[in-house]
């Protein structure tokens, strides 16, 4: 009876392994494996937790389409990339680590469908450079999937003097979208990878910078993560309003909860929790399915401002769908960017006037 190296690593950091407790670790490890195996084998796991992403896109032809995706080197991001490239979609992978992205996609995607762009979402300057490179090389973008995220970090400020999770998960990705305004097609679909956890946040009547980019004394990484996801939902409503007389559409998709991905890597306790949740949570490919559904499904044609979970419409929290609040959050976001980006008003004017 052996510990798998993986689970041994997890426990090694947290338990002082000695002869007495090693048998209980082995026991827990085997018990966990037993549960996972049995649930996966003996029940129709696929039906309970939803279809794999590949099945969701199997009828869709994406030849000639271009999709930009952030966080494409991550677990759900690379699965989305694989499924869309199977349908002949050209994928622009905006990744922090291009080397990792190439490794991750090496054997699963056709190389001819992939183009890599380096971006560090913790830096507005890096986002700008990435957008400039995309504008030089690409003529159009039909689908934008804003999927990158981080979680479980201690409080840090970015070089732009913003709390890191807020900037990476939300602000920089909206800024990237704005920078690419010129090449978004007239029926572009924008998908924010969201989370059910947005429900835990309620903003004051008039939120300030400190309510979305948390100062150290108000910070927990969960709170900041939830705020970033609520910002995405709020922005979905704002953009849908702004684009109401166009064919552009915006969706938010919840992939599923506690999917064991790189998201929990920053703290062992989260990693342990996500491992324990494996029997009850979606696989990575099931996690990608609602996002690819939003990005490609013909059933969603002509709709916008929809939050989806399990490939179905879902009611977001009251604050998320409050259109007045989405205007306030949007104003705040513009203020933050105006303070940090040169000639921001010229960029925003172009983005705002995207009507066709
Ligand atoms: N897993 C879940 O249970 C769950 C639940 C609800 C929602 N979600 C959402 O699903 C999406 C995908 O997450 P995942 O679970 O697949 O996690 P993941 O494996 O950690 O992927 C996250 C991706 O974001 C990228 N990223 C992080 N910081 C970045 C930065 N500063 N600049 C550029 N890229 C950065 C990562 O790049 P590196 O590879 O360089 O780190 C990675 O590609 C996220 O939006 C997450 O919030 C996940």
From TrEMBL:
Pfam families: adh_short (PF00106)
Keywords associated with the record: NADP, Oxidoreductase
Keyword Oxidoreductase found: yes
SUPFAM superfamilies: NAD(P)-binding Rossmann-fold domains (SSF51735)
Tree of life domain: Eukaryota
Any one GO molecular-function label of the UniProt entry: oxidoreductase activity
Entry keyword annotation includes Transmembrane: no
Family label: Belongs to the short-chain dehydrogenases/reductases (SDR) family.
Name of the protein in question: WW domain-containing oxidoreductase
Organism annotation: Euphydryas editha
């Amino acid at each position: 009876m052996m510990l798998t190296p993986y689970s041994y690593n997890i426990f090694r950091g947290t338990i002082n392994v000695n002869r007495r407790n090693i048998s209980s670790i082995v026991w827990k490890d085997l018990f966990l494996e037993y549960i996972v195996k049995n649930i996966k084998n003996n029940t129709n796991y696929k039906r309970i937790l939803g279809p794999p992403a590949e099945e969701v896109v199997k009828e869709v032809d994406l030849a000639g389409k271009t999709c930009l995706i952030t966080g494409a080197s991550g677990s759900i991001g690379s699965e989305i990339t694989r499924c869309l490239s199977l349908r002949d979609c050209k994928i622009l992978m905006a990744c922090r680590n291009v080397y990792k992205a190439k490794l991750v996609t090496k054997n699963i995607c056709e190389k001819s469908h992939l183009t890599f762009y380096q971006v560090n979402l913790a830096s507005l300057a890096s986002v700008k450079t990435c957008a400039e490179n995309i504008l030089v090389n690409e003529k159009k973008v039909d689908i934008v999937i804003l999927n990158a995220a981080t979680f479980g970090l201690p409080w840090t400020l970015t070089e732009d003097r913003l709390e890191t999770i807020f900037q990476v998960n939300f602000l920089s990705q909206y800024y990237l979208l704005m920078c690419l305004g010129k090449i978004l097609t007239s029926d572009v679909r924008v998908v924010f990878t969201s989370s059910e956890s947005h429900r835990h946040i309620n903003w004051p009547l008039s939120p300030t910078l400190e309510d979305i980019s948390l100062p150290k004394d108000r910070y927990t990484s969960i709170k900041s993560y939830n705020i970033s996801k609520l910002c995405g939902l709020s922005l979905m409503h704002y953009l849908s309003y702004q684009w109401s007389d166009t064919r552009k559409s915006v969706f938010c998709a919840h992939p599923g909860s506690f999917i064991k991905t790189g998201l929990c890597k920053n703290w062992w306790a989260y990693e342990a929790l996500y491992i324990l949740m494996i029997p009850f949570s979606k696989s990575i490919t099931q996690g990608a399915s609602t996002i690819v559904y939003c990005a490609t499904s013909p059933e969603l044609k002509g709709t916008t401002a929809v939050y989806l979970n399990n490939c179905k419409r879902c009611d977001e929290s009251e604050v998320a769908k409050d259109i007045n609040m989405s205007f306030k959050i949007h104003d705040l976001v513009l203020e933050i960017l105006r303070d940090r980006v040169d000639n921001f008003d010229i960029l925003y004017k172009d983005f705002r006037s995207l009507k066709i």
